[in-house]
Amino acid sequence: MDTGFIIEKFILVAVIFGISLVIAMYSTYAERKVAAYLQDRLGPDRAGPFGILQPLADGVKMFMKEEIIPSTSNKWLFIVGPGLALLCACIGTAVIPWGSPMEIGGKIVPLQVADINVGVLYIFGVVSLGVYGVMIGGWASNNKYSLLSAIRAASQNISYEIAMGLSIIALLLMTNTLSLKEIVDQQHGWRWNVLYQPLGFLIFMVCSFAETNRAPFDLPECETELIGGYHTEYSSMKLGFYLFAEYINMFVSSAVMATLYFGGYNYPGMDYMATLLGPTWAPLFGVGVFFVKIVFFIFFFMWVRWTIPRFRYDQLMNLGWKGLIPLAIANIIITGIVIAIIEKF
Amino acid sequence: MESLSNKKKVLEQKPLSFMERMYLPAIAKGMGITISHLFKKEATVRYPEVEREFSANFRGMHSLKRDENGKERCTACGLCALSCPAEAITMIAAERKPEEKHLYREEKYAATYEINMLRCIFCGLCEEACPKEAIYLDGPIVPADYLRKDFIYGKDKLVEAPLEMKK
């Protein structure tokens, strides 16, 4: 463990942290713009050209608002809740391989903070931790609606995590590894996992909509039933943290989807590009490709949000337990049989 | 029993077919509809920069008119106040002095003339009632303000600009 290593990782962490915050910031802007354009409107266009400074204005507004902590709330947990939500959202980015190793001044730098051999499990753990922020916030508010919303969030996350895990198992049968880096490297060029696991991808995607509390599964914060959901009592930047955490979660799950099923930084013709651009710029181009995929998924999240109405709670549970879980199990069985046949012959 | 009008329709709710229960075809269709709106022209008018034209019979803020010599037309007869269903108009009449001949068209004029814009419903009955063609609702939208007293518009805001100022 030399200092060069620590500096290198520190820079990488800082850059990734910064990028994910900026992307989350501009997701709020993009959300409003996409919503507007899908509804034949213009969206925010007052702050700066095309309203590009809108997220900054929103941030200033959030900071300047009065901060209210309800007198009956559990103060410590009330403050911890949003912080935990944001923390859990942010640490998910640590294991995602952003690009193939890059050569900087004769030194090979891996564009991944930590290549742990249980990367997929780590992602799952962090994602399920995320619900604690929601639960603690909802509980500490000492408000019936917040509590109801927290309960909804918890039960929804638990139900959909099972289907999500099962859909991943089918993928793991094929890849034989839990390391995200190896999973990406196996999808070299065009051999993206989505071509072999379309059903698994579909289940995974639906579940990640539920995990990030996005429409059509945004029941924890459905304003028609629960006022504001778990953040009813929150104001100022604590509310901002919750909203921010949602967008970072969206960014992370888009990154995970792109990594697991859409080849991460792989793209057709990458070998040719590698010889053309050299060992420094080709990985950067790969990172760019990866971000294009991520942005597409973020757009997809928004596109779905402004298309599909919210599920009713019993429909949500029906879909999760009676729809997706049996489907995921069937997917595992079919995948297992096909793999067995291929290996035999 | 047979219905008399024959207009009654018995609706049956069929159970969802397999394709419908999958949701996916319907979702794909819906996504297609929303994405098609991405390429449609937006209906928004960027208001302070672009103003949409009012219709020809739009009724906005009142203005008290002057005649072709720049004299005020209003003679404070009170018909507008009488016709006003919201009782938004009040006025005090006064007699014209000889040296004021160039200001007012007839011997009697409105010394004060006030319209409460919070009461006014912009029905245009004052315009119809006026025998002297002195009041028209041809102005812009009445602007917002902070205090109730600021919505009571006097002659300073209502009377048309004098002729020489118009040129």
UniProtKB/TrEMBL annotation, chain A:
GO molecular function: NADH dehydrogenase activity; oxidoreductase activity, acting on NAD(P)H, quinone or similar compound as acceptor; quinone binding
Localization of this protein: Cell membrane; Membrane
Main subcellular localisation: membrane
UniProt cross-references to InterPro entries, sorted A to Z: NADH_UbQ_OxRdtase_su1/FPO (IPR001694), NADH_UbQ_OxRdtase_su1_CS (IPR018086)
Keywords (A to Z) from UniProt: Cell membrane, Membrane, NAD, Oxidoreductase, Quinone, Translocase, Transmembrane, Transmembrane helix, Ubiquinone
Superkingdom of origin organism: Bacteria
A biological-process GO annotation: aerobic respiration
Catalytic activity: a quinone + NADH + 5 H(+)(in) = a quinol + NAD(+) + 4 H(+)(out)
One annotated Gene Ontology cellular component of this protein: plasma membrane
Topology of this chain in the membrane: Multi-pass membrane protein
EC annotation from Swiss-Prot or TrEMBL: 7.1.1.-
UniProt keyword annotation of Hydrolase present: no
Membrane spanning stretches: 6-26, 76-99, 119-140, 160-178, 190-210, 239-262, 282-304, 324-342
Family membership noted in the UniProt record: Belongs to the complex I subunit 1 family.
PANTHER family registered for this protein in UniProt: NADH DEHYDROGENASE SUBUNIT 1 (PTHR11432), NADH-UBIQUINONE OXIDOREDUCTASE CHAIN 1 (PTHR11432:SF3)
Its job: NDH-1 shuttles electrons from NADH, via FMN and iron-sulfur (Fe-S) centers, to quinones in the respiratory chain. The immediate electron acceptor for the enzyme in this species is believed to be ubiquinone. Couples the redox reaction to proton translocation (for every two electrons transferred, four hydrogen ions are translocated across the cytoplasmic membrane), and thus conserves the redox energy in a proton gradient. This subunit may bind ubiquinone.
Assembly with partners or alone: NDH-1 is composed of 14 different subunits. Subunits NuoA, H, J, K, L, M, N constitute the membrane sector of the complex.
Protein name per its UniProtKB record: NADH-quinone oxidoreductase subunit H
Species name: Pedobacter agri
Automatic annotation (TrEMBL), chain B:
Superkingdom, natural source: Bacteria
Pfam families in alphabetical order: Fer4_7
Binding site for [4Fe-4S] cluster 1: 74, 77, 80, 130
Keyword Protein biosynthesis: no
Matching SUPFAM superfamilies: 4Fe-4S ferredoxins
EC number per UniProt: 7.1.1.-
Keyword Plastid assigned: no
Range of residues in the leader sequence: none
Protein's job: NDH-1 shuttles electrons from NADH, via FMN and iron-sulfur (Fe-S) centers, to quinones in the respiratory chain. The immediate electron acceptor for the enzyme in this species is believed to be ubiquinone. Couples the redox reaction to proton translocation (for every two electrons transferred, four hydrogen ions are translocated across the cytoplasmic membrane), and thus conserves the redox energy in a proton gradient.
Protein name as catalogued: NADH-quinone oxidoreductase subunit I
Organism: Pedobacter agri
Gene symbol of the encoding locus: nuoI
